[in-house]
């Protein structure tokens, strides 16, 4: 279903010191640092799988998600999702995926949530009957009925996140990319979101790829984890492959990162 | 659902958003109206002293200016999304656009519909009518069609310039102020028939950026300074300018780097 081979992506980042003199200097001469965000990344994911994609900050997680969702074009390697290359067949590819960026909103800020949903229905061309059915199910499971008439800017983070997740599922995507979906949520919201993702996977067989720093997300949701560090895949297995994973997860992860030197 | 209907939905959601801030909306609209009214006063007072510029009388210049302003306002009303495009890139909104199954240009257009531009548009419309009434032109159907062609071609050329401006943002991640010479500047210079700026400028505006095709040549036809049968069709030729603009845009999208983490 998702077939990724030898993916590479390099960014050139301009570097300069602080201070006015340095700023002036960089106006005429820029030093570029090469950052290999992805360095020969390969993996494959089956339909209906839930995968935790983890790694420290700056490991290349977001780049991978952006390439898989057709936003970025990689420098090398191949990626086939449902028989398509995301960045070449962008429009038909994104019809079948849902993406939640935890730190960014996809809802229209000043209008009630419902208006955003209706615009999304039109963007994806979801037939009215299917839309109503999905909306009912999502409203019910995520407990949204109170929120739909509120402008997005007046929602709390947890409320907004539930609305975001519903927004990315209105068109019945086969694959769901979740980029830190529980960031900044309180305990109740976290549990609700986790429970919902799990149900969605069981009921609709949706493939879920989840990046997170919250180890409890991983424990609760995924059997399989892929660990990435400095642009390379370091581990592709289950939670049991991580030494000490039955004790304190945070500690086990910190030890793991240290062992790999990332 | 067709692109036009979706654009209408975007438009409605923008109206709803704008209505959230009523005072700001009203004041900006009035401000826009007054700004370009100044320009009109500028021409008016100058012609109190001088009665002709390079063989063009006040009423002829007024006609020229009013048509150019109308073209610019039409392009601006629809294509304004591109003017704030550096913002769309730097706040990550473009990532969102890429994961939706619609043409990118349509979505950018839909994301920023500047309703306050109605002020400038109204002003252009008033001046357009005034300019046509004031001009001592004997109107015939072929001249009317020429004006129509000018509006179509002119809107295309200005839209193309907005598109180039946006495409450059893919590489610089920042808007380039010098592009305003070509957009806002063209509107200012467009007050007068291009020929008054000299032969070199006229050549540049004929073969490089086709301002003269949408302004000088057809105006000459309308004012009976040159009655070659093909002059009225030159504005339509200017539409071809959109092709290189679209190519540059496509090239930019392919090299889109996204922002934030990697």
Describe this structure in words.
- The complex is a heterodimer of chains A (262) and B (262).
- Chain A has 262 residues and is α/β, with parallel strands linked by helices.
- Helices cover 37% and strands 26% of the residues of chain A.
- In chain A, α7 links the parallel β6 (175-179) and β7 (207-211).
- The mean pLDDT of chain A is 88.
- Chain B has one domain (3-253).
- Chain B is 70% helix and 2% strand.
- In chain B, α3 (58-79) runs antiparallel to α7 (118-134) and α3 (58-79) crosses α8.
- The two termini of chain B are 35 Å apart.
- Classes of the chains: A alpha/beta (262), B mainly alpha (262).
- The interface between A and B is medium-sized, with 40 and 27 residues.
In short:
Chain A is built from 9 helices and 9 strands. In chain A, the strands form 2 sheets. Chain A has a 6-stranded mixed beta sheet with strand order 5-6-7-3-8-9, with helices on one face.
Secondary structure elements and pairings:
The complex is a heterodimer of chains A (262) and B (262).
Chain A (H helix, E strand, L loop, with lengths): L1 E14 L4 H9 L2 E15 L4 E5 L6 H8 L7 E6 L8 H5 L2 E5 L11 H12 L3 H15 L14 H11 L7 E5 L7 H18 L2 E5 L3 H7 L2 E6 L2 E7 L10 H12 L2
Chain B lengths: L2 H17 L2 H28 L2 E2 L2 E2 H22 L5 H6 L2 H6 L5 H8 L6 H17 L6 H32 L6 H4 L1 H6 L9 H9 L3 H4 L1 H7 L11 H4 L4 H13 L8
Q: Quick one: how many beta strands of chain B?
A: 2
Per DSSP, the total helix count of chain A is: 9
Low-confidence stretches of chain B: none
Indicate the CATH architecture of the domain at 46-106 and 168-260 in chain A. 3-Layer(aba) Sandwich
Structural category of chain B is: mainly alpha
Shape of chain A: globular
CATH topology of the domain at 46-106 and 168-260 in chain A: Rossmann fold
Beta-strand content estimate of chain B: under 5%
Radius of gyration of chain B: 19 Å
Quote the beta fraction of chain A: 25-35%
| Overall mean pLDDT of chain A | 88
- Trace the largest sheet of chain A across and list its strands: 5-6-7-3-8-9
Largest interface: A-B, 40 and 27 residues
What's the alpha carbon Rg of chain A, rounded to whole Å?
A: 20 Å
Order of helices and strands of chain A: EHEEHEHEHHHEHEHEEH
Summed up, the helix count of chain B is 15
- Placed side by side, the strands forming the largest sheet of chain B appear as 1-2
């Amino acid at each position: 279903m998702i077939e990724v081979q030898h993916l590479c992506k390099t960014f050139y980042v301009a570097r300069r010191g602080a201070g006015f003199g340095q700023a002036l200097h960089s106006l005429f001469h820029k030093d570029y640092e090469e950052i290999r965000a992805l360095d020969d990344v390969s993996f494959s994911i089956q339909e209906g799988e839930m995968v935790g994609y983890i790694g420290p900050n700056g490991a290349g997680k977001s780049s991978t998600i952006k390439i898989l969702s057709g936003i970025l074009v990689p420098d090398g390697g191949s990626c086939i999702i449902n028989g398509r290359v995301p960045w070449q067949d962008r429009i038909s590819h994104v019809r079948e995926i849902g993406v939640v960026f935890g730190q960014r909103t996809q809802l229209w800020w000043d209008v009630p949530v419902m208006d955003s949903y209706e615009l999304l229905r039109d963007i994806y061309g979801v037939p009215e009957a299917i839309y109503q059915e999905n909306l009912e199910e999502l409203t019910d499971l995520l407990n949204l009925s109170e929120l739909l008439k509120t402008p997005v800017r007046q929602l709390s983070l947890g409320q907004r996140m539930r609305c975001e997740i519903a927004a990315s599922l209105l068109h019945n995507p086969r694959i769901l990319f979740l980029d830190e979906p529980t960031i900044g949520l309180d305990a109740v919201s976290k549990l609700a979101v986790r429970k919902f993702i799990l149900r969605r996977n069981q009921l609709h067989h949706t493939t879920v790829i989840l990046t997170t720093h919250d180890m409890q997300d991983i424990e609760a949701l995924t059997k399989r984890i892929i660990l990435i560090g400095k642009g390379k895949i370091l581990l592709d297995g289950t939670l049991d492959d991580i030494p000490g994973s039955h004790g304190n997860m945070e500690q086990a992860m910190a030890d793991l990162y240290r062992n790999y030197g990332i | 659902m067709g692109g036009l209907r979706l654009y209408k939905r975007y438009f409605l959601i923008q109206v709803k958003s704008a209505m959230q801030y009523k005072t700001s909306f009203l004041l900006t609209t009035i401000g826009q109206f007054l700004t370009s009214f100044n320009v009109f006063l500028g021409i008016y007072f100058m012609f109190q002293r001088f009665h002709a510029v390079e063989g063009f009388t006040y009423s002829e210049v007024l006609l020229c200016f009013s048509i150019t302003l109308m073209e610019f306002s039409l392009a601006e009303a629809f294509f304004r999304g591109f003017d704030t495009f550096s913002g769309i890139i730097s706040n990550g909104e473009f990532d969102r656009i890429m994961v939706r199954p619609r043409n990118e240009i349509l979505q950018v257009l839909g994301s920023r519909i500047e309703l306050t531009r109605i002020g400038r548009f109204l002003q252009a419309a008033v001046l357009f009518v005034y300019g046509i009434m004031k001009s001592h032109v004997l109107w015939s159907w072929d001249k009317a069609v020429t004006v129509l062609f000018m509006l179509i071609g002119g809107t295309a050329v200005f839209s193309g310039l907005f598109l180039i401006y946006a495409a450059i943002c893919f590489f610089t991640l920042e808007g380039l102020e010098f592009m305003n010479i070509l957009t806002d500047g063209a509107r200012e210079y467009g007050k007068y028939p291009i020929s008054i700026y000299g032969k070199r400028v006229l050549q540049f505006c004929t073969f490089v950026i086709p301002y003269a095709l949408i302004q000088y040549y057809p105006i000459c036809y309308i004012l009976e300074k040159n009655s070659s049968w093909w002059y009225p069709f030159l504005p339509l030729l200017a539409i071809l300018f959109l092709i290189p603009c679209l190519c540059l845009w496509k090239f930019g999208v392919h090299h889109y780097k996204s922002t934030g983490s990697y």
